[in-house]
Amino acid sequence: MRLRLEPRREASRAMLYGTPVLAVALTVLAGILIFSLMGYDGLAAIYQIFVAPIADPYRWQDLFVKAAPLITIALGLAIGFRANVWNIGAEGQYIVGALAGTGVALATWDMQGYWILPAMVAAGILGGLLWAAIPAFLKTRFNVNEILTSLMLTYVAVQLLYYLMRGPWRDPEGYGFPQTRLFSEWQTLPTVVQGTLVHLGVPVAFFLAIAVWIVLSRTVTGFQVRVVGLAPQAARYGGFSARGTVWLTLLTSGAFAGLAGIFEAAGPFQQMTPQFSVNYGFTAIIVAFLGRLHPLGIVLAGMVLAVSYVGGENAQTALGLPYAATGMFQAMMLFFLLAVDILVRYRLRVVVPADLSRPVEARHPPARQAETGAHVSSTPIDKQRESLSA
Amino acid sequence: MTTAILISIIMTLVGAATPILLAALGELVVEKSGVLNLGLEGMMLIGAVTAFGVTFTTGSASLGLVAAMAAGAAASMIFAFLTLTLTANQVATGLALTIFGIGLSSLIGQNFVGRTVSGLEHIFPAALADDPIGRVVFGYSPLVYLSLVMTAFVAWFLTRSRAGLILRAIGESDEAAHSIGYSVIRVRYLAVAFGGAMAGLGGAYYSLVMTPMWADRLTAGRGWIALALVVFASWRPLRLLGGAYLFGAVMTLELHAKAAGINIVPPEFLAMLPYLATIVVLTLISIAPSGRRNAAPACLGKPFRATG
Amino acid sequence: MATEGKPPRLALEGITKRFPGVLANDDVSFSVAPGEIHALLGENGAGKSTLVKIIYGVLQADEGRVLWDGEPVSIANPKAARRLGIGMVFQHFSLFEAMTVLENIALGLDHSFSWRELQQRVGDILKTYDLPLDPNREVHTLSVGERQRIEIVRSLLQSPKLLIMDEPTSVLTPQEVDRLFETLRRLAAEGCSILYISHKLNEIQALCDTATILRGGQVVATCDPREESARSMAEMMIGASLRDVSRKPGTDFGPERLRVTHLSAPGEGPFGVPLKDINLSVRAGEVVGIAGVAGNGQNELLAALVGEIEGAESGNIFLDGVPSIAAHVGDRRRDGMCSVPEERNGHGAVPACSLTDNAVLTARHRMELASHGFIRYGAAEKYAEQVISAFDVKATGPRAPAASLSGGNLQKFIMGREILQKPDVLIVSQPTWGVDAGAAAAIHQALVDLAAAGSAILLISQDLDELLALCDRIAVINGGVLSDMLDVEGISIERVGLLMGGMHGEDAAGNGGDRGEPRHDPLEEQVHAA
């Protein structure tokens, strides 16, 4: 008896929605196993990571605050991934967006007015967009792989952040700490729920999810993105420009990442520091895939990953589980998702060895034949051939 | 410029180039078989932490090296199983492997942060490396010589051996190779394992030779630069050698400028150099007319599933 | 079928092979004697390819047995087949474009040779069988005929006792076909059996001793092709009387609808063929054909006319007199130009998308399936339904993914989607490639009807029969250069063949026309028969 994969004629819808859940479940199981092997209490660790953040209503605001940037960035990335445009430098666009917004904040720190925050946000969007425009230009003009360029630019952005923090943008009254001055009240993101940390970025993330959903499912532009990703030649035949799609998707994902960046800076951080880069841009890649590149799925996946972040902090304080475990845990989720993904396109069949009606094969004991199959049965003929040709 | 500085520059250059060369050689073979493994950075980190951990525990750096290769290969097998057996998207899986490697290495490595090991023994007697010329020739870690031997080996393997011919053929057209009767999946598994072992070796260079002290994420994106080098080298081993030393030179510039206390350019901008250089070089190679873009194996990154 | 007590070289007994939803081979039995040239005749989808894959060890039969020299054998894989002495030349060559001829040959061998030895043996075979081929050239620089020779040499190096040729002539010029037949006859005379798979009746009559005819996975007859007429074999093959395409011979054409002047374009992809100074025109009601061996610029021509290459082309294209070279794909469609590319999956249609989405892909401009940037899914679904019913497409409905349709049905859907847009100019490439006979006839009829309604049709095809049956004028494309137009009335196949062989085919360089007996022209005969 063996397991065999048979292609399905149509992708299974049930599996399409079921596999992310299955992936999370498998990650939980593997997590229990691995943490136990490492000498921790596996069950307790999983409880801290996956259940405690949801069970404790006081942590819910943290979940939303963590999820918002993940969802915002992942929405942009998903548009690109659908079109086979692999922007994996969202982290860089996130940083540069935040830096651009911070630039506006620092230039206006002694001013007042409701226009300041919108100007910062606009600068943030523009910063992320321009940082993504570099790989877009290189890809469309010289056909340079966007994976490598967007990623390299992330490292450049991190150095740029360090430079600005240590040099020109350092808080003059900050006792030499490499960070900017705190943003003023005109420059910080308002909270939307009184008395919590839930800032404007949270509803904006949900609103963007709905907007992207509509664009992807109802408009010609969304259709273009889908078709370019599925069949680039058919897309050209249908009148969709490949170059235009690269520009569209990279600029959109850059703008979204930049928006998330300035929201994060003007919200939870309220200043810029060298610790600003916390790899949201990379985690968002996992969010995008776990959400099946679908806006609503991304909202759910963003919440799941936010749970793992908050839970990771829980486990760190409660069990001493190192924070690095969170990253590995998140990557495992993506591994399992990619692994079970095959069930969408293939169906798992249990194969009983075929009946042994064929004469040549029937000469061999069934057990052996089932294992080594055709190899064994062809040997006598080989010998015969060799003796003939000798 | 004194001889001492010159020698120091050359040795820094070779040192910076070697791990990238090792990892890139592995990736070159992987890509020649038609597989794009973006998990290089992750595998290097896993190799680095394994090498360090085993050396730290056993006191044997050679054992650490072997363990690093095994760990790199093992990590690559996750990638191989997902992409080759389960036909998962190679780009996504490679990214996952990198994220996984970063997480795993800092998880294991947290016990080692700040610890040191005695690095790899030199293979040539110290007397040979006494005078300046001798140092430049004989004064390196064994991994440096190994990287050169491996460059020659990979070049020979791909162009002169029958196995290399089959590997290239599978990267050119998996369908055709399958129809002739070659086992596409098996060859690709082997290639990916080789790539993983080489990446592990490259990672080990960082933790055993370059800085025999553990630090989180000590490869700092060099795995991605190695990936870019393969493109830069148009999938040719000897050109890879040149590319790696070119990047070594860029990184040496950064280090020596810092050490010399040159303040005209802020150090952060110097640290950007390797990444900016990568972008520039990738662009130049794409502009270059000579049809080099076509050097990419035709099946690179495409999933293969045997039909019939 | 065993001759004089000797067992047949190859005998199949009751071979059955099932795929999900399809019975590809149903109790197939026949045998091939030593030195016999045996035809396996059948339409696309009759089960020929499956059967051959079983013989060559690529697939395993579900039931039945294979006998080799009288002994039952199990052929586990192609390597085992080659060890028995079975060689195969595939329809789609298993070649590696970026590698040399010699490297390609080495890859096809099971034993390792030294290069020197291999070079020697390849040289011997090329000389013995008079096959012109340079072992050191890279494959992508070769003509299709030369590529086929690589496969043949590869097989001959193993000294095969049975050589399987799968649709070997589908991409050859008539001259190359002659040369191939000579080689095959010579091999047969030396005792090598040949299993010749084709659906071209005239070739089988010219070459084969015996023919086994397959239909729907079953053997319907085994006959001597020389004693049968082409028409009778065709009817056995198709299973019904041939339906002729009805068209009124028209010389009354309307005004010029498509005019192309000095069109040049770069080649697509690393091995593409650039177009050089193409000039042509098609009038209302006219069908103009572009003949040529695959890979001579056909794809580039379609792409340049449709506007797919995004401005890399130069020259001019006039649609009803309006210059359109600068117009985008969508604008050219709006102005009346529709098209059907050669490749269905991933070019003409998006396999993973529904038929409705595939309708939106190209019909949104002319059929108003989108407004203000939003897709009108209701209208799109209605249009898809319309195409499905008008062209008798077998599908579960407009929401079925394109990938769930058979090749012929998907092709009918694509043709229908373009034709129902009532294009002024329709450009189609290989419309019946890999399509069953029924669908092919329907597609041909639709093209003829569209022309009769006043559209101009440009038909790009490798199938000379198809071109001669449908077109009013024909030009040949070779190496990206288009020949002068020839009237189909009284056309010389010899001349078409020479043009197809063109610049890089060595056949056209003088020794093509006068080699051997004057070519009896079976193609023409078949056209008259049809």
Automatic annotation (TrEMBL), chain A:
Keywords: Cell membrane, Membrane, Transmembrane, Transmembrane helix. Its main location: membrane. GO terms for cellular component: plasma membrane. One of its GO terms (molecular function) is transmembrane transporter activity. It is a multi-pass membrane protein. The chain crosses the membrane at residues 21-51, 63-81, 93-109, 115-138, 147-165, 196-216, 246-266, 278-311, 323-344. PANTHER family: ABC TRANSPORTER, PERMEASE PROTEIN (PTHR47089), GUANOSINE ABC TRANSPORTER PERMEASE PROTEIN NUPP (PTHR47089:SF1). This is Nucleoside ABC transporter membrane protein.
From TrEMBL, chain B:
One of its GO terms (molecular function) is transmembrane transporter activity. It comes from the Bacteria. Keywords: Cell membrane, Membrane, Transmembrane, Transmembrane helix. It is found in: Cell membrane. One of its GO terms (cellular component) is plasma membrane. It is a multi-pass membrane protein. The chain crosses the membrane at residues 6-26, 38-57, 63-84, 91-113, 133-158, 189-208, 214-233, 240-257, 269-288. PANTHER family: ABC TRANSPORTER PERMEASE PROTEIN (PTHR43370:SF2), SUGAR ABC TRANSPORTER INTEGRAL MEMBRANE PROTEIN-RELATED (PTHR43370). This is Nucleoside ABC transporter membrane protein. It comes from Afifella marina DSM 2698. The lineage of its organism: Bacteria, Pseudomonadati, Pseudomonadota, Alphaproteobacteria, Hyphomicrobiales.
Automatic annotation (TrEMBL), chain C:
The keyword Nucleotide-binding applies. Residues 514-530 have a biased composition (Basic and acidic residues). It holds the Pfam family ABC_tran. GO terms for cellular component: plasma membrane. Residues 10-241, 258-504 form the ABC transporter domain. Its main location: membrane. The keyword Lipid biosynthesis does not apply. One of its GO terms (molecular function) is ATP binding. Residues 507-530 are annotated as: Disordered. It is found in: Cell membrane. Keywords: ATP-binding, Cell membrane, Membrane, Nucleotide-binding, Repeat, Sugar transport, Translocase, Transport. It is a peripheral membrane protein. It comes from the Bacteria. Belongs to the ABC transporter superfamily. PANTHER family: CARBOHYDRATE TRANSPORT ATP-BINDING PROTEIN MG119-RELATED, GUANOSINE IMPORT ATP-BINDING PROTEIN NUPO. This is Nucleoside ABC transporter ATP-binding protein.
